[in-house]
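Per your request, structure below.
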């Protein structure tokens, strides 16, 4: 069982930055692939970024490449999403997820944190 708690969301102007954090419970954090997803109003939840167990491999959706960086600290059971050059279209609820495989079918999810970008 893994419990995830996101923080760091807020309201910023376009071009600004935010860093999201996701704190995980449990002693097996390093066993999980960690990901960030987002859901904008009226849209389906979409994948944003993923990081493997060691932090040595990451992958991003094209729309955030070069602007967002996912990282993790296994000693602190925390995964981060550094978001730079934010755009109004980045506005969404951002969710942290933990999964043992890339299907995300049995993933654990956080409650989400709101990110709002004003133009």
């Amino acid at each position: 069982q893994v419990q995830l708690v996101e923080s760091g969301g807020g309201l910023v102007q376009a071009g600004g930055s935010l860093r999201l954090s996701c704190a995980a419970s449990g002693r097996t954090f390093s066993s999980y692939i960690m990901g960030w997803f987002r859901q904008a109003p009226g849209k389906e939840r979409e994948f944003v970024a993923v990081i493997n167990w060691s932090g040595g491999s990451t992958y991003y959706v094209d729309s955030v490449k070069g602007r967002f960086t996912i990282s993790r600290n296994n000693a602190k059971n925390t995964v981060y999403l550094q978001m730079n050059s934010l755009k109004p279209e980045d506005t969404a609820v951002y969710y942290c997820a933990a999964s043992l495989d890339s299907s995300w079918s049995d993933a654990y999810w956080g409650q989400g944190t709101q990110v709002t970008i004003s133009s």
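Residues 31 and 113 are 24 Å apart (CA to CA).

Regards,
D.
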